[in-house]
Amino acid sequence: MTKYQKYFQSMVDEHTELFERFRDVHTRYQQDPDSCKEEFNMEGAKVLEVIRHWEKLLCAKSESGQYGKFSQNLAEKFWSVIRIQFPKIDFIGVR
Questions:
Q1: 27, 31, 67, 88: least CB-packed within 10 angstroms?
Q2: pLDDT of the residue at 95
Q3: What is the domain extent for residue 14?
Q4: What is the pTM of this model?
Q5: Does residue 95 lie in a domain region?
Q6: Inside any domain, residue 80
């Protein structure tokens, strides 16, 4: 398992309740975006806050070291794992 996959798993394990609630809302949003858009945005904002925190933890050491140019690729890989689980995550906050 790669570093970004470990961080993703740790993030989900540490915030299980939050991600389970978001998974439920995300599924309903995929089926009918108009009916639960507000709830999707509210839960999604909480989830994005957690994801960004873990992304910073993941990339912090590589940004300050000699591998700074690779931290963006690492962040993109981390987000790709997230987008596999939650394909509509980029729609949080979209009006």
A1: 31
A2: 75
A3: 3-89
A4: 0.88
A5: no
A6: yes
User: What distance in Å separates the CA atoms of residue 80 and residue 38, rounded to the nearest whole number?
Assistant: 25
In a domain, 72, yes or no: yes
- Gap between the Cα atoms of 85 and 95, Å rounded: 22
94 is a domain residue: no
Asked if 50 and 13 count as a contact pair (C-beta separation under 8 A), the reply is no
Residue 33: strand, helix, or coil: coil
Residues in the chain: 95
The count of other CB atoms within 10 Å of the CB of residue 75 is 18
CA–CA–CA angle 89, 14, 47 (5° rounding): 25
Joined together, the tokens standing for residue 25 give 């809302």
Q: 10 Å Cβ neighbour count for 36?
A: 19
Work out how many domains the chain is built from and give that number: 1
